[in-house]
Specification:
283 residues, alpha/beta, Rossmann fold, Pantoate--beta-alanine Ligase, Chain: A,domain 2, 2 domains, 3-stranded antiparallel sheet, 9 strands, 38% helix, 19% strand, EC 6.3.2.1, cytoplasm, Pantoate_ligase_C, pantothenate biosynthesis
Length: 283
């Protein structure tokens, strides 16, 4: 049986623990999470272990990235199962701060990202989101001081925002994106999938099928506009309320009008019942 990871809840304790790893010449990888861990998170941990000798996983449901109308209170929290998963993967440290440790009384400083954070994708529907993400990730980086940090490609705009922030602020941390882990039928693994009813769970695979179909049509030489229109209609016909279904430049997230506009990425966000799902694939 794998030993349980060291669980720390205060910044001084965390820094002492990381300093002890450094004294043994360890390299450190950070995997930021909000808990409710699934196989997608496990894949991030396994990539972290390949890229560093020691691994810190943070578990913190960050209130500043939720709007008042969103699901902060209902967000799934599965602490015992999470720790069991991390112990099985031989994670070294779990950083599990309370809200008061991350945002103590009088907290008044926030990071306001631009660039990919203002691409007109998630930010169009959740204008508060990337400020909350950038602030909490910036704090996690300065608290843990890792050599590398691992983020999933499923939250592709977030990955681009964090990469840009680390570069712009000279944080000295290498940001590594990890491929999206999918269920056998193609649905991207997400902690929010538990909100789907059995019927909705079957319908949810439409997002991946629509992206694949549109990407195939673009690769075959069809113009972007009609190729994407077909996928959007497929999504709406399945019963989704579509927020966006777009092709963007894979690095800058700038709008793309043709295959000549660089490496391309299809990104989608849509609501099925009360559950909002996001996904993306490379073209």
């Amino acid at each position: 049986m794998s030993p349980s990871p060291l669980i720390v809840r205060t910044v001084p304790t965390l820094r002492r623990a990381v300093d002890n790893l450094r004294k043994r010449k360890a390299t450190v990888a950070l995997v930021p999470t909000m808990g409710a861990l699934h196989d997608g998170h496990v894949s991030l941990v396994r990539l972290a272990k390949r890229r560093a000798s020691r691994v810190v996983v943070s578990i913190f449901v960050n209130p500043t990235q939720f709007a008042p109308t969103e699901d902060f209170g209902a967000y799934p929290r599965t602490w015992k199962a999470d720790i069991a998963k991390l112990a099985a993967e031989d994670v070294d440290i779990v950083w599990h701060p309370g809200v008061e440790a991350m945002y103590p009384e009088g907290f008044a400083t926030r990071i306001v990202p631009e660039g990919p954070a203002l691409a007109g994708l998630e930010d169009r529907f959740r204008p508060h989101f990337f400020g909350g993400v950038a602030t909490v990730v910036g704090k996690l980086f300065t608290q843990c001081r890792p050599d590398v940090a691992i983020f999933g490609e499923k939250d592709f705009q977030q990955l681009r925002v964090v990469t840009r922030m680390a570069r712009d602020l000279d944080l000295g941390i290498k940001i590594i994106g990890s491929r999206t882990v999918r269920e056998r039928d193609g649905l991207a693994m997400s902690s929010r999938n538990v909100y789907l009813s059995p019927e909705e769970r079957q319908i949810a695979t439409t997002l991946y099928r629509a992206m694949k179909e549109s990407a195939g049509r673009i690769r075959a030489g069809e113009a972007i506009a009609p190729a994407m229109a077909g996928g959007a209609e497929m999504i709406k016909a399945a019963g989704f309320a579509l927020d966006y279904f777009e092709v963007r430049h894979a690095e800058t997230l700038a709008p793309a009008n043709s295959r000549k506009d660089g490496p391309l990425r299809i990104l989608v966000a849509a609501k099925l019942g009360s559950t909002r799902l996001i996904d993306n694939i490379a073209v």
